[in-house]
Amino acid sequence: MNPTIFHWRSLNTRITLFTLAIFLISIWSLALYASQVLRQDMERILGDQQAAAVSLLAREVNHELSYRMRVLGLIAGKISPAMLGNATALQAFLEEHPLLQDLFNAGVIAFRLDGTVLAWVPLSSERIAVHELDIDTVTVALREGKSTIGRPVMGKKLQAVFHMTVPIGDQQGKVIGALAGVVDLGLPNSVDQITQSHYGKTGGYVLVAPQYRLIITATDKSRVMATLPAPGINPTIDRFIEGFEGPVVYVGATGVELLTSAKRIPVAGWDMLAILPTAEAFAPIHAMQQHVLLTTVGLTLLVGFLIWWMLQRQLSPLLAAARKLASASDAKDRLQPLPIFREDEIGQLIGGFNHLLAILAEREDALQQSEAFKNAILNSIPAEIAVLDRDGMIVMVNQPWICFALENSIEDGKPAPRTGVGVNYLSVCQASMDSPSQDAAIAAYHGIRAVLDGSLPSFTLEYRCDTPEQRQWFSMVVSPLTPVGQGAVVSHTNINERKQAEVALREKEEFFRLIAENLQGFVAVLDVDGRRLYNSPSYARLFGERDISGTSSFADIHPADRERVRMAFRDTVATGIGQHLEFRILMADGGIRLMESRAGVIRGKDGRTKCVVVVSHDVTERKENEEKIHRLAFYDALTQLPNRLTLNDRLRQAMATNKRSGYHGALMFLDLDNFKPVNDTYGHEVGDLLLIEVADRLKTCIRAMDTVARFGGDEFVVMLSDLHADEAGSIAHARIVAEKIRLILSEPYRLTVKHEGKADTTIEHRCTASIGIALFRDHEASRDDILKWADTAMYQAKEAGGNRIRFFDAQSS
Fold first, then answer.
1. pTM
2. pLDDT tens digit string along 498-512?
3. Are 437 and 463 in contact (CB under 8 A)?
4. For residue 327, is it left (φ>0), alpha (ψ between -120 and 50) or beta?
């Protein structure tokens, strides 16, 4: 055997070790994965079996406890108030029911309403002290009338004792006492028998009262009445206490890993747990893992030997070819084809190598063609391009560079000096440092040098190169040849059109700024999120000298209008359609102004909204003037009551509403009886004060749905709508309101007249009113007819002496 086969540089050794490593990783990963999956499946199956077993036991315990509770309730239902008053009779009654002694092996106790013991059976049993019982649950039964199961306590036989309590009620359902049954798990009983059996060989069952964190009973009797760890010490136990039912694997307090399942017992709120050490549960898996380990080791040794033997045999032609290539590489002659020993993959590899030797010449021709193709591409680019070596020497230029040198030459037909191949471009930049464009020449020299040295990834410069005929702008871009340090590519591009466009854009921006800054309105440019990009100087009138650039345009909008404006702005951004809005803004001084705005969008190249231009105007004064005009048109200027025009409109609406609903309406015509002497004696100023006071009093006499209007002079109209469907009820309602008006208007008037520079004068005057009332509903009368009816009734009240109420009677008229 050749010892060099095991050298690490040997391909055979590396392939053998690599293949063996793959095999080892695969088979060990498979073994570990299979054992892990098997353990998970076994854990799931055993957990399901354990959960089913503990659910069955929990149902049995729940059935036993429920049955005892029902029997105790039936016995309590037969106890009468008379028995509770006779302890001997109650004792005898309880002793007549031997079933109680079978179900409650520690006795049955009867309590009075005050909690004292009245009877206890059997008398011969070893009694448990009452103070040992959970007296709070007895109190719940007595006070709230609820059946309860008390907290387990430690009995005299070092076993758990618990009791069930049911209320005793009279025929009316009132609690008059309680009956408790006590179960001692230290004595023979069906509940404890359930937990005495083992689960598996080393497992068992545990009955837990989670509300007290207490073990009631368990297969391991040493754990009876043991207290569970405090909250936070064992998270798994805390999960069971909170109602988790498993199954789950965790490490117990003794350090043993356990498979545990739980099931809640509804009637008592207890948990039945089944516990099995995982050492017993997963013993078959551990045995199988040992077998898999031994099998894996054997397969590893066998496969390693087979791989080494196979590779040594299969790679021998490849090793022979490698030795021949190593000897041929030292010779200067052209490589000859290598011999092929077998027509397998290695033979195909050697044949492929022989084919590569045949196409080397073709590759050289292709390289020349590629060079020509590259030159064609460079010449087709409109930019002037020169390729520099690492020292800055021009090694190649494209056709636009040559044309530019010819066009800018002093001599016709000859290129400009120092522009061709073989010229050091850095020296050209140095020579231009004394020219008017020296700043650009200096920047170009240092930029090109930095790219050649590798200290800059690239360099860009915009510079002027004027001719006597025109001003020209160029952009120079210097990019390194890869790898870095091999040279650079310098390209010059004429950017006259772009510069002209930039100048035009600046002029337009200045034009826009001049317009915006001289407008009376407010101009803002916002981004798509509503942040301010530009604000016209006029915004200082609203927000003072505060810098609002970059802030949200919604922050200064009145909170009641903010969301509406925000939604409209989003619609404008999404659709590109501006909207016309009115909204309120909060000024720097705390004032509120009403704004009217229109928006338009500016789109980007992709057609999406780039920003939004909003032009706003302050329309506060205009809206206030419109409101004043509206008040003058529809309301009385003196009393601020609706005028005739508004009254006619509301009367028309009331007539239409009453016609649909079938309800009556009433129109009252009021005329002041003693108004003229006020004007004659004190003047019209006092008369106006009286009319204002009359209007204020009238408004206090009607509902919000009714109307008070000034008809003219000292005449007022009150309209009541939606009174009653029947006429009599409507008349009664209208009379009540009219009487209320008559009384309040007849009260004295104290009118204060203010004199500039003098003391105020107070005038007291009495004035009454004559009131005429006309009902209307679904008849064909017009508004003028109804007003005439009420006016006629008012004059009837005047003729009767004034300060009267009269209803219009169509028959008498």
1. 0.38
2. 777 777 777 666 666
3. yes
4. alpha
